[in-house]
Amino acid sequence: MRNDKLHLILKETFGYQTFRFDQLEIINSILDGKDTLAIMPTGGGKSLCYQIPALYSEGVCLVISPLISLMQDQVMNLEEFGVASCFLNSSQSYEEKKEVQRRVRNGEAKILYVSPEGVLSPSIMNFLDQITISLIAIDEAHCVSQWGHEFRKDYTRLYELKNWFPEVPLIALTATADEKTRRDISHQLSLKDPQTFVSSFDRPNIKYMIHERGDEIKQLNEFISASHSDDTGIVYCLSRKKVEKVAKELSNLGYHAIPYHAGLSPQTRERNQELFNREEQIIVVATIAFGMGIDRPDVRFVAHLDLPKSVESYYQETGRAGRDGKESSAWMIYGLQDVVKISQMLETTEAHENYKKVARHKLDSMLSLCETIQCRRHYLLNYFGEQTGQHCGSCDSCLEPAETWDASIDAQKLLSTIYRTGQNFGSNYIIDVLRGSKNTKVIERRHDRLSVYGIGKDLPKNHWNHMIRQMIHLGYIGIKNWEYRNLCLLEKSRGVLAGTSPIYLRRQSDKRARLGLQKASTKNKHMDHERHELFEELRSLRGEIAEEKKVPPYIVFNDKTLHEMCVFLPRNASDFLMINGVGQKKYEQYGALFLRKIADHQIHV
Q1: Which strands make up the sheet holding 232-236, listed edge to edge?
Q2: In CA terms, which of 237, 446, 523, 583 is 20 to 30 Å from 491?
Q3: Band of the pLDDT at 346, cuts 50, 70, 90?
Q4: What pLDDT does 353 receive?
Q5: Helix 584-604 vs helix 2-14: crossing angle, to nearest 10
């Protein structure tokens, strides 16, 4: 009986025919009164795991959400589905907060969003004591763990909620947490014998492409123009200065590009966030400050111009593409300087050595993803403990497998140069010696008299840089001083120098990048219905409604729902309610308008 009612809520309220992943099991765990930890991919429907129990149960569901913009989007979206909800945060006036509390007390709202910074304040705790709480949901729960990739200190006190409301079930939700982080989340939140659900980490609609950095703006432009010229996307950069530069250069190339980082004024950040939510074919260039607040389902690409700090960060950020399940791209370029920058930032922090050790390991794993010659998706899934022996056939490694070559002789030259110069210099200096540079410092140190001087002059600088990066990843070369980036030999290099251990490296090639762009650009962007004119008409209608209501277009209907309308061509209420994403409230609001537009189009075809 319970499951029947849950399915009814899913269909009539949210317009979905079936539960996905472990949604139903997670919901039942909560309704059985058990603390629950849910790991689900971005776009996998985590929110429904607490929204449906909230509608099923008496009382109010309390949701701890990390960003004001995310709360606002969630409430706006729920109101469109006819679900009464509200939030309490610092953006509201005293009168607005009092009105929210009145609504909650009177049973006029089923879901209440509060920030981690505000929920434990005396005023809000006093208010929570006066209402019946059916469930506590901790969103983006990886922020609780010091081993997570976006640790937030305010999350560390959330265990107090469990102590304050010991009989209320608590659910912690995140898209990215390895086994160690999952254990830490349960411990930090004081979860009692939690039921843990780990859905597949696979995002089969995302195509992963990773290339070495050359001319980054040229590479980015080639990628966007070939694969996503009319799409919405996100470009991530490591620094605020680079964000501004890249946004300006993309604008000069004719793209609608805007910057987003923590150094902008609150008004500018809010305006740019609003532009990104509401406009079609827009690109936001951002630091990771533009992160967890993204709920837009039709982001078609995420590009990284700098190396993320961990595989978890990379997975979380790339997961913001294709939340609607349509084919999307995760594209990245990287270089050795990225590793040096991140390592320097880490070593200069005052973090505990245990944290630094874990962070170094995470960075090594991220570099391994870049340098691997195996399937990118296979590597990602294995990293999160999901075993798969199959290649995906849609990442750059599968589309054009990397060539390898016997690098033993060049490796001996490189390792010998590092050794002969005393293992006290960075990569640029080592390459100068290898290539016989007349650099003043090389001459002053009399390194031009070494036997290794000039033994690599027949090969270009980028060849040696490429080798250094791979040999660091493979454990032949270490960096013993991150401030000065000094290279040193590791134990593994002995066999190479002795000639007893051959070394094979990935061959540097621009062909793979070009082929990846060509194959990425052949994707079917409009599914199989071939009713592109109708899709544009529906999208235009959606835009007019969104403009009138002052909400983002995807809040009305997302692209996937519009495409389903083009496929099935609904003729009446019964047909329209069968479309995914169309619940009873949305049909009542928009059904007649969209049915008329579909009928008019068919008359004129």
Answers
A1: 206-212, 328-334, 299-304, 232-236, 283-286, 257-260
A2: 446
A3: confident
A4: 76
A5: 50
CA-CA-CA-CA torsion sign (595, 599, 602, 604): negative
Q: CA 338: distance to chain centroid? A: 19
Residue 304 to residue 286: CA distance in whole angstroms: 10
User: Which backbone phi and psi does 239 adopt, to 5 degrees?
Assistant: -120, 155
Type of residue at 425 = F
Q: Which two tokens stand for residue 316?
A: 């979380």
**Predicted pLDDT of residue 570:** 94
344: left (phi over 0), alpha (psi -120 to 50) or beta: alpha
Contacts of 526 (CB under 8 A, 6+ apart): 532, 535, 563
Q: How many Å apart are CA 504 and CA 20, to the nearest integer?
A: 43
- pLDDT, tens digit, for every residue of 387-415? 776 788 889 989 888 788 899 999 999 99
Distance CA 458, CA 410 (A): 11
Question: Given CA atoms 260, 518, 376, 378 in this order, what sign does their dihedral have?
Answer: positive
Average pLDDT, the chain: 88
Under 8 Å between Cβ of 455 and 491: no
- pLDDT confidence tier of residue 1, bands split at 50, 70 and 90: confident
Q: Are 69 and 293 in contact (CB under 8 A)?
A: yes
**Burial level of 57, CB count in 10 A (0-12/13-18/19+)?**
middle
Task: State pTM to two decimals.
Answer: 0.75
The predicted pLDDT at position 148 comes to 55
Residue pair 396/516 in contact (Cβ under 8 Å)? The answer is yes
User: How do residues 584-603 score in pLDDT, each as one tens digit?
Assistant: 999 999 999 999 999 998 88
Contact 290/260 with Cβ under 8 angstroms? yes
Backbone φ/ψ region at 39: left (φ over 0), alpha (ψ -120 to 50), beta: beta
